[in-house]
Amino acid sequence: MLIDSHCHLDYYTPMELPDVLARAAALGVGEMVTIGTTIAQSRTLPGLIASHPSLWCTVGVHPHHAAEAEIPSPALLAEMAAHPRVIGIGESGLDYFYDRAPRDTQAENFRAHIRGAQLSGVPLAIHARDADDDIAAILREERDNGGDFDFLLHCFSSTRALGEAAIAMGGYLSFSGILTFPRSNELRAIARDVPADRLLVETDAPYLAPVPYRGKRNEPGWVAHTAKVLAEVRVMTPGALADLTTTNFRRLFKKTAGVVSTSRPHD
Ligand SMILES: [Zn+2]
Fold it and tell me: Were 116 and a residue from 74, 111, 170, 200 both cysteine, which residue would form a disulfide, CB within 3.0 to 4.6 Å?
């Protein structure tokens, strides 16, 4: 079974969602994580997934939205992450490609999310675009000040240097449909070299559909195409790659393995 570690299911209508999930199941994608991008939207996600036992969610503020509302406190993020179906914090990070929020606001938002992950013990899903040096520096500073925390670089498409820095700090790298694009030779070379126990796959659906669906609206089931390319790059069978990434997912997102029980019961 494959797990889509990062998608945006709130982009599909309630009418569409059951079909999206059925098509994913038919492709061997049994679970998926739908991602928080603002606090208001994050509050709706446990309800969105409530009737689908194969779905999980995270809570957080995307760097694009960092200046739109008050930056959440680490305590608020940790409190929201205590819900049994909330398995991570994020996505948060830095995006210097679009620069939709001032960089210092993005940094403050990112640090709040790291501290929320430290408080709650759930992993942080990090969005990093054209901000490699600052991502690595903030991760190091916050770790030195507040202790270890689990994290993944979602939709990894950064430099080898950031990938190696993340791995050295215990982080995971999640590969998306970008891995399948013809020009992604350097990314495939990085994916070949990542330690086996740090690999995850995702779609970032509805964005970034993999080959052969590039340009279409992406779906969680299509993580199978990214996984197929990753298996080729790693010289593994698709089945072994699925087992590996699912084992890694359970180790990182401990709540999905039933290892960590939340301290505060909710609904
Ligand atoms: Zn992202």
Answer: 74
Gap from CA of 203 to ligand 1 centroid (Å): 11
Distance 60 CA to ligand 1 centre (A): 11
Give the distance (Å) from ligand 1 centre to CA of residue 104: 18
Q: How far is the CA of 89 from the centre of ligand 1 (A)?
A: 13
Ligand 1 centroid from CA 39, angstroms: 15
**Which tokens sit at 155?**
């939709």
Distance 155 CA to ligand 1 centre (A): 7
Helices 160-168/185-193 angle, 10° precision: 20
4-37: per-residue pLDDT in tens?
999 999 999 999 999 999 999 999 999 999 999 9
Residue with token string 């679970």: 31
Residue 72 pLDDT class (50, 70, 90 cuts): very high
Distance (Å) from CA 115 to ligand 1 centroid:
19
- In angstroms, rounded to a whole number, what is the distance separating the alpha carbons of residues 205 and 9? 8
- Give the three-state DSSP class for 91: strand
Rounded Cα distance between 154 and 225, Å, is: 17
Q: Which residues of 232-247 are buried (b: 16+ CB within 10 A; e: fewer)?
A: ebbebebeebbebbbe
